[in-house]
Amino acid sequence: MKKDKIFQLVFTAILISIIILQSFIPFLGNLPLVVIDITIIHITVIIGACIMGWQTGLLLGTVWGVCSFIRAFTSGSAISLLVFTNPLI
User: Fold this and answer.
1) By the number of CB atoms within 10 A of the CB, which of 7, 40, 44, 65 ranks highest?
2) 36-48 pLDDT per residue, tens
3) SS3 27
4) What pTM value is reported for the model?
């Protein structure tokens, strides 16, 4: 019983760290094109939700959303960087 909880905690932490790495390292989770970014991070969230359940999927989706929110404020696509770059960064 305790071993299952430790496994769930460690597996969730590994998936969260993978999502954070995919979010902020270029060409790892987001594939930037000229106008839009194509993402493959949702595959990590789907795998975590299928293996660990909906609670872990909810947590992973929330982490992905927060990382996407931070990434949207700090960077953008090539065209939008010229116009919409945050001057505080």
Assistant:
1) 44
2) 778 899 999 999 9
3) coil
4) 0.79
